[in-house]
Amino acid sequence: MPTDEDDEQREDEEIGTQPGDDLATTDEIRKAIRNLYRDVSTRKRLVAVAALIVRGKPHLKRQFEPEDLFQEALERIGRELRVWPKNRVDFPGLVIGVMKSWSHSLEKKKSREDDGVVMEHELTSADRGDDAPNLEETASDSSTPLDQLEAQEHDAKRHSLLAILKAQFGPQKLETKILETIMNASFETHEEIRSALGVGEADYRNAWKVLMRAAKNLEPKE
Amino acid sequence: MNAKKIPDQRFLDAQIALIMGTPDAELDELLQAAGFDAQDLAARGAGAVERALAVIEQADKASAVLESLPVPRQREVASRLGIRRSVLAALAEHRAVVETIPKRFLHRLANEVETTLEAMRLALMGPVAATASQHKSDKAPELPKQVTFEQLLRDAAMTEDEIAELMRDDA
Known about the structure:
The complex is a heterodimer. By secondary structure, chain A is mostly helical.
């Protein structure tokens, strides 16, 4: 039975190759990693993204700092365990995709380890190599009751977090309208959401700052 | 911000898009609002990039060493590790699921290859190497499947006592 976890899995899984893809060479990949030394802005952004990803993974959060996730992603990309189709994704986008995909797999595995359960299918591998793809594949196997229960509990927890976040603002507040738009509709870009809400850029950005601060404050303290 | 995703995933994606799309001049302010110290993020990121590049380089070297060990040296290393030479070759071809290799064994293998545990682990990851499927027919090669380390030992006809000793993980 498909679950929302499967949806996440499909969305976040590694970027595969398509016919006509322009795959980066080893030199291009290594150069892109080295470039992060001097590109302070991208570096800050990617570690911040790693932190947001880790925040939503309770098991991973106990053992991983955001920079660990960032480093792991760079290592996998650097060793070409993940391809980089340059024509479809830029380097920061690739790093984010790998961080999301790998953290998703690891969170699932650690959740089971913490529960003292090891699934047989976690110990077998696909041909593609690397631990992550194998575990990612298992993520789409929701046939066990434990899988289904985990997915339901995770969804319920996260739904309630967003509900609590939304409840912090009055119905007419821009923050509420932004959350409702995200929760109920599908928009590809912030510009689309902003246009749909008919608000100015500065107001929109300020509302997001408030939302992100509130979301941070909602995170359980360790 | 895909419709198929649950709301929290769309919220995460929206936050990511905002962080990635904010102009440089406004970035630190946004990060601060999200509870981050921008300078701290930059420093942590620099450390991560440095460590990743070092591990990648070490993993490259470890792979090269493993793949090019002369037969007498393969025998020597295999003997010291208490494994068959075929197991060492299988490891070099990425035929073991890395996460099933006990840390203690990985440590010992890393020592033999003169690299770090982290680099050794990274070096053993990846698709099964093409050398594992060398063949003479015209048919497309079929790569061997990755198996657990324990299965690899069993396939190499090692004894139960030997397997138990190798699977011990007290590092």
